[in-house]
């Protein structure tokens, strides 16, 4: 692992694994990507050093943009994934729209972003309340978002998309306020859900350990790998259970789409109630919340009805039970 430092950001990077990721990356051939690739053919020494430090192939990126402006600029941005972990990062300093207004909309907070040549890099930290980490990021990778405000249009053909008139400053601040308020509400709701689970475990005299967000996501992937049939299409199951765009992802889609034969309805409840539950994991299928449980014998199918949608599994994956939010689906119980 190489240690890379920019400003207050300090990152341990596995350059070989990062390069291997980009070796298999399939770049979109959209016009915006081709224009960005044209710029990357003549990067400055400073820009090249940044990408080399992380093992990033700069052309391997799906470009986001708002179209060309009247001055020949083509502002654009995107995401890069890097295999590594944060060793140090600046604290997150949140500010309300009211506080910003009191200061005449002058934001005096230190900027955690890093300016390198044409690029402005924004390291996305999962410990921050506000982040923009895509759901499809590979396990063990961090996300670096970038923006190139003054990127020029370099292709000989005309740009297919033109920029709309920029919004007024009050419209921008309204959008910022809505995003911050929504994010704060999501955090509040998540903490309320955690408290609800913890009160339940305390009443049942169950020892519970909360798993981190990354641990929870990794556990869900492991759940699929351990339970899926040997001849099943794992990628298809993952799409349905973790990141489906056609259906809302739930772990129990492995049962509703009949990848596994299982007990259901009253039969599932009855078997679950008589199963040993000394070491278990309980996962919320609605949020990225999971708990490692000890001595959970008192939990019955009837008591799990108070929760919206949960999956409970033996620590050795020998059995699993899911209470769904759908009247027509489940509950499901499966035992190897």
In short:
The chain is α+β, with helices and mostly antiparallel strands and 336 residues long. 32% of the residues lie in helices and 22% in strands.
Description:
This protein has about 325 residues and is α+β, with helices and mostly antiparallel strands. The protein is built from nine helices and 14 strands. Helix content is about 30%, strand content about 20%. Strands 1, 2, 3, 4, 5, 6 and 7 form a seven-stranded antiparallel sheet that branches. A seven-stranded antiparallel sheet has the order 8-11-10-12-13-14-9, with helices on both faces.
* Low-pLDDT stretches: none
Average of per-residue pLDDT values: 89
Q: What is the number of strand segments?
A: 14
Strand content: 15-25%
Helices and strands, in order, run as EEHHHEEHEEEHEHHHEHEEEEE
What is the terminal separation in angstroms? 39 Å
How many helical elements? 9
Structural class: alpha+beta
**For the CA atoms, what is the radius of gyration?**
24 Å
- Proportion in helices: 25-40%
Overall body shape: elongated
Mind sketching the topology for me?
Blueprint: E1 2-6, E2 9-13, H1 15-23, H2 31-40, H3 45-54, E3 64-65, E4 76-88, H4 97-102, E5 114-116, E6 119-124, E7 141-148, H5 169-203, E8 207-210, H6 213-227, H7 234-241, H8 253-256, E9 263-264, H9 265-273, E10 279-284, E11 289-294, E12 310-314, E13 319-323, E14 332-335
Antiparallel strand pairs: 1-2, 2-4, 3-4, 4-7, 5-6, 6-7, 8-11, 9-14, 10-11, 10-12, 12-13, 13-14
